[in-house]
Amino acid sequence: MRDIFRTRQIRLTPVLMTAVFALASLKAAGLWLNFSSAGAEEAIPPAPASFTERAVAASVTSERLLEQLAARKDELDAREADLDTRESVLEAAELRLDASIKALQQEKEAISLAETSRSKARSGEIGRLSDAYEKMKARDAARVFEVLDEDILIPVAAGMRTISLAAVLAEMAPEKAKALTVELANREAATPPAAEVKQ
C-alpha cells in the first residue's frame, strides 16, 4: 500500500512542479505587463489643456457652420418653392389672358360680320328704295323728298340714277334741292374712289 502511495507521489511531483512553474511564469508576466503599461503611461504626457479647448471649439464651430448651412438650404428651398408658385400663377394668368384675347377676337369678328350683314341688308334696302323712287313720277318723288329725314334721304338719292335724280331735283323747292345737292356733293367727296355711282 505504501508502495502504491509512493509511486503516485513520484508521478504527481512532476505535474505539480510544472504547475508551480507555470504559475510563477504567469505571475512574472503579469508584473512585467503592469510595469510596462505604467512606464508607457509615464512616457506619454497628458494632452495640454489648450489642445482640448481647441478641439471643443472646433467641434462647436463645425456644429454652428452645419446649422447655418442647413438654415441657408431651408431658405433657398423656400425661395425656390415661392418662385415655383409665382411661375405657376403667371402661367395661369397668361393662359387666362390668352383665352380672353381669343374670346375678344372672336367677339370682334362676330360683331364685324354682324355689321357687314347689317350694312349689306341696309344697302339692299336703300337700293330697293332708290329703285322705287326712280319708278315714281318726279313730282311725287320730289314731294316725298322734301319731308324725308336726311339720314334716309341722302343714301336714297345717292343710290338713284343721275337722270332720275335730276328730274326729282327739278320738281323740288329750290331751297330743298340746294340742301340736297350740297349734302350729295359732300357725300361724294367723302366716298372712297373705289365706290361706283349709278349712271
Task: Describe what this molecule looks like in 3D.
By secondary structure, this protein is mainly alpha-helical. It is 87% helix and 0% strand. The chain has 6 helices and no strands. It is rod-shaped and about 170 Å long.
The helix count comes to 6
Output mean pLDDT.
78
Order of helices and strands: HHHHHH
What is the distance, rounded to the nearest whole angstrom, between the alpha carbons of the first and last residues? 173 Å
Radius of gyration: 61 Å
Q: What are the low-pLDDT stretches, counting only 5+ consecutive residues below 50?
A: 194-199
Protein structure class: mainly alpha
Key words describing this protein structure:
rod-shaped, 199 residues, 87% helix, mainly alpha, 6 helices, disordered C terminus
Question: Helix and strand layout, with pairings?
Answer:
Layout: H1 2-43, H2 49-135, H3 138-145, H4 150-158, H5 162-171, H6 174-190
Helix pairs in contact: 2-4, 3-5, 4-6
Care to give the gist of this entry?
The chain is mainly α and 199 residues long. It is 87% helix and 0% strand.
